[in-house]
């Protein structure tokens, strides 16, 4: 279907769309064309611009330049939400279904049939049943939405979108929370809906799915359009190359040039058969002076594993041990006491108190060491804050500088300072360079090399290739399990193919 002639009217087209947020260009002259009845994949690594493009295609944001057309006609104004709903809908990874309402109530929310000034419940259930039957969606109209499977909730969201008249549906990571059989059933329904005239834009980190379900693919990289082509004309290796481009010129130590650790080096961190809500049977070790990477797609479970190790998240089974001592689960103070330092994923909500100073944030985990009853004198806190400013190159007016006034890169350095404050034996870094500039990345990653030389164990949990180059080994998680291990010196194509669940040698 993707090989239809350019003269055929497109369901949706974006022409040279640009969108900036301050000085940052989220999209630069991006174009995309989706033709009727196809599943068109939109792929790219984190930060490529996919989410911004989706927000423009769904009318949530207006482009700075460029235009969007549906079936050849200009998109409606941003204010006309009903007109947008008639043209496009997005089924997000995190469901917008209201769990405590019934399926029928969710399908007709804010537009329930009314009789005599009251909601006509019988008519609403009848209309819901007719809608579900028409699109062959096998759920009860009176079922509580929260009791449905993830798969069924997604289909209800698709039915709701179709009921407005939209025949263009954006699926954002639709398989992230589904198992193998559920994915197969979802793909069958997508194919059936395509045959009935529904068009899909399919966003996924699992490239194998692109080849299973899609006819065309568009690749974004660094906020730019790289290529659009029929899936059949873009082999896996070429698709991954389009997504990654040339390696950036970060000036950081590559682990491939590092001497191997002695075989008898002590194990600092041991993870045994750890299981949680989105991962199962995860086991690995990190030795003193070793940097191990843990990577995978957003839905792979990598972040949950890291948070469980740091005591931020409960586990269902398994143990985490530091220097041979098992840690109590979901206990941050115990993790700190046993020598684990952590840079959490969300620095604004978990890593920093934005209204407090550099010194207060950096010394938060060691207040008891600086003063009696956990109350540290300001002079001691400021002295420690200045020490961390000097050690990490934090650009601030001084230790009393309020963290909210720092750049993103310097805020992340303050989070790193707090993680290092307890002089941990194990450092867990979750997306440590997310959203920071090149120089800040270099500074943060050089800290990792420094603490490794001090004999500390480091776990780098990230989807960024440059973060992983400093690792002696990289473990790849796929759908909740450790699926592969790469030694330092890996090739970009091979690692990304493993992350995406693709074999480059498949035909």
Overview of the structural elements:
There is one protein chain. With 507 residues, this protein is α/β, with parallel strands linked by helices. The chain has helices spanning 50-57, 81-85, 103-107, 121-134, 150-163, 180-195, 207-213, 236-244, 302-309, 332-337, 347-351, 358-362, 367-370, 378-392, 408-420, 438-453, 465-468, 492-499, and strands at residues 12-21, 24-34, 39-43, 65-70, 73-74, 89-91, 114-115, 118-119, 168-172, 199-203, 216-221, 224-230, 267-276, 279-287, 291-296, 317-322, 325-326, 340-343, 426-430, 457-461, 473-478, 481-487. It has two domains: 12-97 and 148-244, 3-Layer(aba) Sandwich (Rossmann fold), CATH 3.40.50.300; 266-499, P-loop containing nucleotide triphosphate hydrolases (Rossmann fold, 3-Layer(aba) Sandwich), CATH 3.40.50. It contains 18 helices and 22 strands. Strands 6-9-10-3-11-12 form a six-stranded mixed sheet, covered by helices on one side. A six-stranded mixed sheet has the order 18-19-20-15-21-22, sandwiched between helices. Strand 19, helix 16 (438-453) and strand 20 form a beta-alpha-beta unit. The longest helix is centred in the middle third of the chain and has 16 residues, at 180-195. It is globular, with a radius of gyration of 25 Å.
């Amino acid at each position: 279907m993707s090989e239809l002639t350019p003269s055929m009217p497109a369901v949706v087209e974006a022409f040279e769309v640009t969108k900036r947020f301050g000085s940052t260009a989220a999209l630069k002259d991006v174009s995309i064309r989706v033709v009727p009845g196809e599943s068109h994949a939109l792929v790219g690594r984190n930060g490529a611009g996919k989410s911004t493009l989706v927000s423009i295609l769904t009318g949530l944001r207006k482009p700075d330049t460029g235009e969007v057309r549906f079936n050849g006609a200009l998109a409606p104004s941003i204010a006309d939400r009903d007109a947008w709903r008639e043209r496009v809908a997005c089924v997000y990874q995190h469901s917008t279904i209201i769990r405590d309402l019934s399926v029928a109530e969710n399908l007709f929310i804010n537009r329930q049939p009314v009789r005599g000034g009251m909601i006509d419940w019988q008519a609403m259930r009848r209309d819901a049943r007719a809608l579900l039957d028409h699109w062959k969606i096998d759920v009860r109209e009176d079922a509580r939405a929260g009791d449905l499977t993830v798969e069924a909730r997604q289909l209800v969201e698709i039915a709701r979108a179709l009921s407005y008249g939209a025949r263009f549906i954006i699926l954002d990571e639709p398989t992230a929370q589904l198992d193998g059989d559920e994915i197969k059933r979802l793909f069958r329904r997508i194919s059936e809906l395509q045959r009935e005239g529904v068009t899909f834009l399919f966003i996924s980190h699992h490239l194998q799915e692109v080849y299973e379900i899609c006819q065309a693919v568009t690749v974004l990289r660094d906020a730019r359009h790289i290529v659009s082509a029929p899936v059949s004309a873009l082999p896996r290796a070429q698709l991954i190359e389009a997504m990654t481009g040339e390696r950036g010129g970060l000036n950081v130590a590559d682990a491939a040039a590092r001497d191997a650790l002695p075989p008898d080096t002590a194990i600092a961190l041991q993870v045994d058969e750890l299981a949680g809500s989105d991962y199962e049977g995860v086991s690995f070790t990190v030795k003193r002076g070793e940097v191990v990477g843990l990577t995978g797609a957003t839905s792979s479970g990598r972040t949950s594993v890291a948070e469980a190790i740091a005591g931020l998240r409960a586990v269902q089974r398994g143990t985490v041990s530091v220097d041979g001592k098992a840690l109590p689960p979901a206990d941050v103070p115990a993790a700190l006491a046993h020598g684990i330092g952590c840079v959490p994923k969300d620095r604004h909500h978990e890593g920093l108190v934005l209204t407090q100073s550099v010194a207060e944030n950096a010394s938060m985990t060691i207040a008891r060491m600086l003063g009696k009853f956990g109350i540290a004198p300001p002079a001691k806190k400021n002295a420690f804050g200045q020490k961390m400013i000097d050690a990490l190159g934090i650009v601030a007016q001084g230790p009393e500088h309020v963290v909210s006034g720092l750049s993103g890169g310097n805020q992340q350095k303050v989070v790193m300072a707090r993680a290092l404050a307890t002089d941990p034996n194990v450092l867990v870094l979750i997306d440590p360079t997310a959203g920071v500039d090149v120089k800040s990345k270099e500074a943060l990653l050089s800290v990792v090399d420094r603490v490794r030389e001090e004999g500390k164990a480091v776990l780098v949990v990230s989807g960024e290739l440059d973060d992983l180059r400093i690792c002696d080994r990289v473990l790849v998680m796929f759908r909740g399990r450790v699926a592969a291990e790469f030694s330092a010196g890996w090739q970009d194509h091979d690692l990304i193919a493993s992350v995406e669940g693709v074999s480059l040698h498949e035909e």
